[in-house]
Amino acid sequence: MLLAIDIGNTNIVLGLYDADAASADAQGADVPLVRDWRMRTEPRMTADELSLTVRGLLGDYADKITGISALSTVPALLRELRVMLDRYWTDVPRVVVEPGVRTGVPLLVDNPKEVGADRVINTLAAHHLHSTNCVVVDFGTSTNIDVISARGEFLGGAFAPGIEISLDALASRAAQLRKVELVRPRSVIGRNTVECLQSGILYGFAGQVDGLVHSIVAELETTHGGPTTVLATGGLAPLVVAESGTISHHVPDLTLLGLRLVYARNF
């Protein structure tokens, strides 16, 4: 079984794929996602602590792992990830996404080394799913918007503060405002402080994303032509997808899919 590990700034996501992922992809077959787990990222976690948590979540699957594909956007945990794999899965083939790993994704930006591994992997997965130009909106610690050509080239994108970061900042800087549950309010016009905050966060971010996507798609039509598919992923995507007028596909496991695909490219 293939274990996919996505270490982000806020959460660590694990995915378990059935069968021999590399062989199945080579034959054009689909590989089912058996299970997935999400846990909080702790940047000071050691390799031993990371292993204990991962193996605890995997349970009986822990000794059935035949391949591992992983990435980390947290530098402190990237080293601990490597130590964990060397110490606890010594004989298991693995790919840790970093410069030099075969992804098949051309990075058409000023400094390719600046592009995070998660953005490269999302590009690979989006192009696998759709043969059109693609825009991937990743709702995580930050809101990342990545732009992909119909040829699978990473063209760049845009960053914006994430939903939780914005809510935390608002609550800490405004004396009479506080953190609220991130759910849809009764109406856009809030009738109390909680609903006003929920409305501003939910509909405000949906409007921000739609505005950026509209501008990106208009530019893509000029420079690359053809239709554009807009996908959403990330832990906070379900909050915004229903309110967005531009997002057409919600793919919660997009990064896990990309990790499966990059493993197949390297074995």
TrEMBL record:
Keyword Lipid biosynthesis: no
Cofactor requirement: NH4(+); K(+)
Pfam families the UniProt entry points to: Pan_kinase
Record: residues binding K(+): 138
Entry keyword set: ATP-binding, Coenzyme A biosynthesis, Cytoplasm, Kinase, Metal-binding, Nucleotide-binding, Potassium, Transferase
Binding positions for substrate per the UniProt entry: 116-119, 193
Record's cofactor remark: A monovalent cation. Ammonium or potassium.
SUPFAM superfamilies from the UniProt entry: Actin-like ATPase domain
GO molecular function, one term: ATP binding
Enzyme Commission code: 2.7.1.33
Family matches, as CDD domains: ASKHA_NBD_PanK-III
UniProt pathway: Cofactor biosynthesis; coenzyme A biosynthesis; CoA from (R)-pantothenate: step 1/5
GO process terms (BP): coenzyme A biosynthetic process
Active site: 118 (proton acceptor)
UniProt main location, coarse: cytoplasm
Catalyzed reactions: (R)-pantothenate + ATP = (R)-4'-phosphopantothenate + ADP + H(+)
Binding residues annotated for ATP, in chain numbering: 6-13, 141
GO cellular component terms given for this protein: cytoplasm
Complex formation: Homodimer.
Stated family: Belongs to the type III pantothenate kinase family.
Function: Catalyzes the phosphorylation of pantothenate (Pan), the first step in CoA biosynthesis.
Protein name in UniProt: Type III pantothenate kinase
Species assigned in the record: Allosaccharopolyspora coralli
